[in-house]
Amino acid sequence: MSNLRTVITAAAFGLVAMQAQATVAPQDLVNPITDYKLYVLDNLEQFSSHTREFTDAIKAGDLQRAQQLYAPTRVYYERIEPIAELFADLDASIDARDDDYEHGVQDPTFTGFHRLEYGLFHEHSTAGLGDYAERLMSDVETLEQSVQDLTFPPEKVVGGAAALMEEVAATKVSGEEDRYSHTDLWDFQGNLDGSKKIFELVKPLAAQEDPAFVARIEENFTAIEHTLAHYYLIEGDASSGYASYDKVSERDRRALVGPVTVLAEELSTLRGLLGLN
Amino acid sequence: MSDHDDLSPGCPFSGLNRRRFLQGLGAAGIGAAATALSGGALASQQPRTADVTDAPSSSATHQSHPFYGVQQQGITTPRPAVGMLASFDVLATDQAGLERLLRTLTERIAFLTQGGTYEQRDPRYPPVDSGILGPSIDPDGLTITLSVGASLFDDRFGLDAVKPRHLQRMVAFSNDALDADRCHGDISLQFCANTEGTTIHALRDIIKNTPGMLMLRWKQEGTVPVMAPRSDGSTESARNYLGFRDGTANPPADNSGLMQKVVWVDHSNQEPEWARNGSYQAVRIIRNFVERWDRTPLQEQEAIFGRRRDSGAPMHGGIEHDLPVYDNDPDGKVTPLDSHIRLANPRTRGSERNLILRRPFNYSNGVEANGQLDMGLLFIAYQADLEAGFITVQKRLDGEPLEEYIKPVGGGYFFTLPGVQAGDYLGSSMLAASQRHS
Predict the structure, then answer these.
(1) Which of B114, B146, B261, B331 is deepest in the core (most CB within 10 A)?
(2) Mean pLDDT of the B404-409 span
């Protein structure tokens, strides 16, 4: 039904035939979306428990431990940003950066990870961070609860693959995201994981439509991972974490920007390819 | 004009009016509109006056410059009102990738400078074009000039053996305060057009079509003040943001013999064969301290430049295009020896070797931390020999009194590739030459 409708609509508007042959039916997306929700909930659960450890360390005044936990905790959030961003208020209180506020770090409404990052990595102290830690923990719990009750809109999920690469292109390759801790590569990997997960879930559908597209996406994901691997703290061990972003060479920055831009551009067509409105 | 074509003669309101009228009744539907029309309810309505948000009109949007040719456009082509210099890093990692990039750029420039209609896409996809000029674009006098920096000839693309002789990374002169974020680049694209919408559209088209191949490094936009045509047909040079005419002494671009000497690389330049009909492009972002300048006595301003401000004439009088004469002024009593124009072009025997073709734009970027204006000159000059041209001239200018009021902060040296014929791509002769060397 929907296939026929697609073709007819396209023909009526005189559109480019090549891109209007989506054979993906809405029900084909049911399983990928369900799997994706499980992925998000799993990440949220881990995000919540890591945030608890992180905020407990701050409240206990353990600066070193809090610094260590900062980046590994954020990764879970960075993976599921397309969903988290559906809750704009929570996203702002959890993950806004100081330049989102006219008065920067002095702004009383500036809360969340990056406010804590400023204290931990710029002021090198947990002093005065207790309230921010409490607030973060409670925001994360609210988020977890809210997502459980959420019906995942397919276009948001599929569009999320590109949105995550836009995140990387906008703030990670420049090192703006984690300006005090320089842990941008962790976030980079988190966004990449999240984008790749969405792509993997719909890959069989995308491959039916355009196998060359799938090959290009995979090639560029691989290229990024290859470059990121230069910065594992322990060679060959992705779980060891990442070197500081200021260690990234100019050549590697270029090597990241290319495939990130290609992925942002290519993945922006994923919704169209799968016939989503 | 086509708005009027579908109306019978004597219709009391224009096609544009009727279209608006029908659009306004969108909810009521065509039936209601027809009723209103047949009732003649609007026959007494006055012709519509322009709306605040109507697009400004221009009769020059159809103007175009041929893209294919022995040399690229945008060098000896008359300078239009708007310019932009965008510098990029090439992200391709090998010569095959570079070739893909050059082919894509050639194809985009050929389209953008001649105009045309974009392909329509299924609306569930992102559109192929930004749409800022509508689904069809006019050339609007657009030229896009492709040049390459010295860094393109490093170890990435196997081009080191075919580098133009004088191509080098720009080194700071004594008065420079170069900002690394606004210097150099693998590739420069100079955009010139009648309006800014056209240059910005072209830049966005190129960025959209080169993901993974190019990364924008810096850009600087500029303008030239527009003047009304003079009744006697004579022309004058535009003014810079210091109020002085800029380019008065430019060699005339319609003198092709002179252009061959001054601008275009030929057999006499001992350059690689592939570089013939190319040119060296020197770009400088030169901030002007305009508040301070505006507080400087006029006679001092004129002594610094070596020209009269209002007329542009030499210090000894006459009109703008009268040649300055220094023979009878060896001590600089009339035109100071350290004035800008006398240092830049002393008009001595042999100094014609140092001629350059200037193509500058004025820029205005914003406000400095001290509350002063960040504005100045986007200096662009072309020459067949970078050493004999810009570098020699700038060395002569080192220490000039004008330095008190200017600060070069960015730019770079590039080599403008030879032109291209249909079916070929910009830079093909350079890549072919490198393959013969390897």
Answers:
(1) B146
(2) 98
Banded model confidence at residue A22, pLDDT cuts 50, 70, 90: low
Q: Are B91 and A276 within 8 A, CB to CB?
A: no
Among B94, B101, B125, B155, pick the best mutation site for testing chain A contact (most A Cβ within 10 A).
B125
Tokens standing for residue B386: 């970078």
Taking the CA of residue B102 as centre, how many other CA atoms within 13 Å lie in the half-sphere pointing to its CB? 27
Q: What is the ipTM of this complex?
A: 0.86
Q: Is the dihedral of CA B418, B421, B422, B423 positive or negative?
A: negative
Binding-site residues of B for heme b, in ranges, read 247-249, 340, 345-347, 358
* Closest by CA position to A209, among listed A262, A158, A258, A152: A158
User: Which region holds residue B95: left if phi is over 0, alpha if psi is between -120 and 50, else beta?
Assistant: alpha
* B158 membership: H or E segment, kind and range: none
Among A61, A78, A99, CA closest to A180: A99
In A, what residues contact B, Cβ < 8 A?
Answer: 10, 13-16, 19-20, 220, 254-255, 257-259, 261-262, 264-266, 268-269, 271-273, 275-277
Alpha helices per DSSP H over B308-404: 340-344, 392-397
Task: Note the Cα A43 to chain centre separation in Å.
Answer: 12
Q: List the end-to-end C-alpha distance of chain B, in Å, as a whole number.
A: 58
- Longest CA pairwise span in chain A (Å): 66
Closest chain B CA to residue A259: B212
Q: How many CB atoms lie within 10 A of CB A75?
A: 23
Q: How many CB atoms lie within 10 A of CB B421?
A: 10
Q: The tokens 């200037």 sit on which residue? A: B358
The confidence score (pLDDT) of residue A25 equals 87
The domain spans of chain B are 1-54, 147-186+225-437
Residue B88: what residue type? F
Q: φ and ψ at B434, to 5 degrees?
A: -70, -30
pLDDT tens for A156-196 read 999 999 999 999 999 888 888 889 999 999 999 999 999 99
Structure tokens at A46: 């881990």
Interchain contact, B123 vs A15, CB within 8 Å: yes
- Please report the domains of chain A, with CATH numbers, ordered by start residue: 2-273 (1.20.1420.20)
B116: closest CA of chain A, how far (Å): 17
| Alpha helix ranges (H) inside B92-195 | 95-114
**What does the pLDDT look like over A204-229, one tens digit per residue?**
999 999 999 999 999 999 999 999 99
Q: Is some CB atom of chain A closer than 8 A to the CB atom of B45?
A: no
- The Cα–Cα gap between B240 and B419 comes to 30
DSSP state of B288: E
